[in-house]
């Protein structure tokens, strides 16, 4: 599955008269930004735990952090083996008709 719209697709949209408002272009797989090493996870977990213990962040933040880490881990695994691809959207605008 492609990770982004091909440049030729975007150019064909422009040729049809559609103005691209929010292009989603990247040169890396979408899941590469979600990858976090064990050291980074541990560091973030310590910071979140300390902030929670001090009462700086709301109760349940540590649980949410754990859930988000697990979710990112599963999404990256799915991306690595090619069984999951998120939906993305390119927002285009039809040009206004010019008055004659």
Automatic annotation (TrEMBL):
GO terms for biological process: methylation; steroid biosynthetic process. Residues 1-95 form the SAM-dependent methyltransferase Erg6/SMT-type domain. Keywords: Membrane, Methyltransferase, S-adenosyl-L-methionine, Transferase, Transmembrane, Transmembrane helix. PROSITE patterns: SAM_MT_ERG6_SMT. The chain crosses the membrane at residues 12-31. One of its GO terms (molecular function) is methyltransferase activity. The keyword Transferase applies. Belongs to the class I-like SAM-binding methyltransferase superfamily. Erg6/SMT family. This is SAM-dependent methyltransferase Erg6/SMT-type domain-containing protein. It comes from Vicia faba. The lineage of its organism: Eukaryota, Viridiplantae, Streptophyta, Embryophyta, Tracheophyta.
